[in-house]
Amino acid sequence: MNKNKEQLLNKRYKAEQRFRLYGLSAIFMALLFLTIFIFKIFSTGYSAFQKTWLIVPVTFDAELMMLDQNPSKEDLQDADYYDIALKSMADLDPNANEDQENELKRMVSYFFEKEIKNELLNDPNLIGKTKEVYLTASDDLDQVFKGNYPRDLPEDQRRVSDYQLKIFDQLVANGKVESKFNISFFTNADSREAELAGIASSFMGSIFSILVCLMIAFPVAVLAAIYLEEFAPKNRFTDFIEVNINNLAAVPSIVFGLLGLGVLLAIFHLPRSTPLVGGITLSLMTLPTIIIAARASLKAVPPSIREAALAMGASRMQTTMHHTVPLSMPGTLSGTIIGLAQALGETAPLILIGMVAFVNTIPGSPMDPAASLPVQIYIWAESAERGFVEKVSACIMVLLGFLIIMNLFAQIIRHKFEKKWS
Amino acid sequence: MNLILFTFIVLLGFTSYYFGRKKAYTIQSTKKRLTALPQFYGYYLAIWCAIPAFIIFSLWAIFEPTIVKLLILSDYSNQGYLDDELNLLYEKSKALSRGQFTGEITPLIEASAEKYLSLRSIAQSSKVVIVLSAIIASVAYAYKRISSNSRTREPVEKFLNAVLFTASLAAILTTVGIVFSLIFQTIDFFKVIPLFDFVFGTHWYPAKAFVRDSSEALDPTMYSDTFGAVPIFAGTFFIAFIAMCVAIPIGLMSGIYLAEYASTKVRQYAKPLIEILAGIPTVVYGFFAALTVGPFLKELGTSMGLEVSAESALAAGGVMGIMIIPFISSLSDDVITSVPQSLRDGSYAMGATKSETIKRVIFPAALPGIVGSILLGVSRAIGETMIVVMASGLAANLTLNPLESTSTITAQIVVILIGDQAFGDPKTQAAFALGMSLFLVTLCLNIVALRVVKKYREKYE
Asked: What Å distances lie between residue B439 and A258, B189, B432, CA to CA?
């Protein structure tokens, strides 16, 4: 009997330990996912911040460029750079036949003549001389240099030929290949060529959308929260508004995209693919989040503040505007920032209103067509070229960086400025 | 032009505020008692300046284009043109007057463009005149009321109250907007495709609707086997089911651990770390699922002799489950923490171990709240878009094999609406019909979940 009891007790204790272990492993799993995730993104993405350059001697031959003696600035602008560009690439291998010359040309980026042109524009004295110029390597060679490209594949399955690899290896051996910080990733707009594609256009698109979103959602949400928390009579109608807000907070984001498409584009004829429409759509989405946060922080202001103001003869409006609202601002602001961070990461509604268009110019206003950072991730992730994989990860790193900064900012505002009532 | 007028009105508003306040001081200096603080006199005047301008501006924006169009087209309306031709003429002349016209310029278009320009300039100048005179009249009226020292604080506050109330209507307006944008297209869709075919049909192949020549008349029988949404609905719930299979055990157990076992220190770090998972944009999860998880599962399957699609439902559902873990864990954590301590103490006093207390006492007590949090998680899984678009298939297969690819409501909406859409096309309308069903399903889930959670909260508070 006694032994039985002890066994039972032991069994129960074991069950206890097992249960505890389940809980611990659940947390461990969740954190493991997070770690794998972050590790994967960083390990594929960090290399995109480096860019491979080929150092190629270029002879600025005035004849080949169709330049006269003492050319003016405009002449230099209009000169023909294609031939010298081609020639300098072909000179890498004096024995190259025509096909091989073509392959040599494809070792550098599509716009390599522009890079040569800029070199000359910076220093017009170079005419007739030879200088080693940094040329952006093609995205495939860029990947080869970073070690992301499987060189052991059969040649017909690779986009880089054996010949190109041979020349490239020679260049590497001579120290004519260099890796430098990839500034153009931050300053270029999107491009079909992976080695030239940058996030500037989508970044500006995101900024404009978020600004539009902030300018609409913040005032409306704060005013609505003030009304619902401080003035609204308790009746069916305000209950209905409340139910509405809670439901809107849980409506899938893609439905807001349909709203933007069906109302903003089809009825109001706002310009497609613009951050203006994107921002309005996002603002409708963030509205409930901000309203809920603002109401919570208005609720947290103790009634004694209101009573004191009312006792001094202030009207209800004065009490609210001069005392309650300013005291609730830290909470409201941090809720707003969190809402905006959500909006910044949102993709689906923006796709529906056409912000997936290929934009190769940097938008200057909310009325210009643009993409946004998450949409850029989507666009690049869908394209087949290997060079875009690391760009996607790098773009994700930039986006996550912004989200982390925004969330930290929200935390700081909350902890630094929020009054603790006790 | 509008911008200049707008700035001018704003300036007028500020000046009237200034004059209102000044008037209050002069009234005060005559030893009369003011009915409100001086700035309210200013606000009163400024509001009277802004309201008429605002009303006229918005009315003008609504009616001006229609009236101009009517005036231009009235010349041609009895000359035997069709309505479409007249509309086209109007659009062309508008484009020409803006210098954006690229087609052939006929004398007709040129004449109407000239008329358009002259009408526009008349409209502009009359707008300026009307707005300014309205402002002057209303400000003069308000100034007179101020001078007689009548009440100003009450009207100002009433106005502010009205503004606050209007802002709170934004939530309702958004809901109404959603319903409206969905309902008309959906009704149009069901005029072509019978509701029965949509709800019970088993073939989903919207690309077929694209092959149609737009000049042909719509032939409903053509679509009889095109828009059957059963595979889509099944795929949606299937992927959501897989996601919940990942999210419920992990989320719930970590919620229980955090609430009952974890020391304050572990809790302090583990909770925000898990919540990071909720803050990661879904497109990032989609990329992760498509680039890492999908190929990994495929390789794993091949090594075990299984045929696994690179876009399997398992990859999309599994990653979606990871995304939902924090929702379930933090909601159930909240729910469990709010179970009164007395229930625990009672159970411990009877000699129960901690896990027995949790399983037999706390879990049943917290069950409604936990169910609510799971329902919210399901609604999120159903509405999730980017993971499915990027990681699961785009062709709608009716399958229950998690290793094959399926498609979901959200993925189909994106597939149909990405790029250019033609409104009035059954394919576009199908996307709105899908959106409507998505909205209704998630709405029901949300209402039930919110109600359950609320009931539960009331029970213990």
From this structure: 11, 16, 10
* C-beta of residue A279 within 8 angstroms of C-beta of residue A212: yes
Which of B160, B385, B432, B438 is the best substitution to test chain A (most A C-beta atoms within 10 A)?
B385
In sequence order, what are the beta bridge partners of A56? Answer: A133
Comparing CB atoms, the residue among A29, A253, A356 nearest residue B385 is A253
Rounded to the nearest 10°, the torsion over CA A95, A99, A102, A103 is -80
Tokens of A212: 């539009």
Q: Which residues pair with A58 in a beta bridge?
A: A131
CATH 1.10.3720.10 fits B230-460, yes or no: yes
Residue B433 CA to residue B440 CA, distance in Å, equals 11
The pLDDT tens digits for A143-175 are 888 877 777 777 777 777 888 888 888 888 888
- The 3-class secondary structure across B182-206, one letter per residue, is HHHHHHHHHHHCCHHHHHHCCCECH
Question: For B123-143, b where at least 16 C-beta lie within 10 A, e where not — what string?
Answer: beeebeeebbebbeebbeebb
B345-378 pLDDT per residue, tens: 999 999 999 999 999 999 998 888 899 889 989 9
Assess contact for A107 and A80: CB atoms under 8 A.
no
Chain B contact for A337, CB < 8 A? no
Q: Does A266 touch chain B (CB under 8 A)?
A: yes
Q: Which structure tokens are listed for A374?
A: 């998450």
User: Which of these CATH numbers, 1.10.10.10, 3.40.50.720, 1.20.120.1200, 1.10.3720.10, describes A200-417?
Assistant: 1.10.3720.10
The reply to whether B444 touches chain A by the CB within 8 Å rule is no
User: A274: closest CA among A397, A372, A172, A367?
Assistant: A367
Question: For chain B, what are the domain ranges?
Answer: 2-151, 230-460
Task: Say how far apart CA A327 and CA A330 lie, in whole Å.
Answer: 7
Tokens read off for A242: 């409340």
Q: Torsion angle of alpha carbons B28, B33, B39, B41, nearest 10°?
A: -90
| Nearest partner of B297 among B306, B31, A20, B250, judged by Cα | B306
Q: In sequence order, what DSSP letters do the residues of A156-212 get, joined into one string?
A: GG-SS-HHHHHHHHHHHHTT-EEEEE-THHHHS---SSTTT--SHHHHHHHHHHHHH
- Model ipTM value: 0.88
Put simply, the answer to whether B290 touches A381 (Cβ < 8 Å) is: yes
Residue type, B402: P
* The pTM of the whole model exceeds 0.90: no
Asked if B287 and A381 come within 8 Å (Cβ–Cβ), the reply is yes
Q: Does B388 touch chain A (CB under 8 A)?
A: no
